[in-house]
Amino acid sequence: MDLRSRAAFLALIVAQAAHSIEEYVFRLFDVLAPARFISGLLSSDLARGFAIANIGLVLFGAWCYVARVHRGLPSARGLAWFWALLELGNGVGHTAFALARGGYFPGAATAPLLLGISVYLIVRLSAAPPPSLLS
After folding, report:
1. What secondary structure letter does DSSP report for 69?
2. What single DSSP character describes residue 44?
3. Residue 132 pLDDT grade (very low, low, confident, very high; cuts 50, 70, 90)
């Protein structure tokens, strides 16, 4: 992965952190059943469970960047694809919920960041030649 792709990956993780904060502040766990379910698995206090899940998600993304992507290890490309597709779906989902609701839905304000950065990263990853098995 080149420098711009690595920077886009880091920007995507930072955008996810902002997105997680928005979801927490506007209580996504109160309006979306899967968020409520996961939060409830982690704590009887849904706000706490949601915070734990999202802190874990962002920490995993930070680990992916520091331990794999930044160092240019072979697993970096696969992790970048995973995160780019995950955040593309996340951004599309929040946008679709907001459109269906006809107004704001928790996470919709930062969804365009996720969409833009993930599309940019997908374009960069698609344009780069796949790594050689011999290198």
Report:
1. I
2. S
3. low
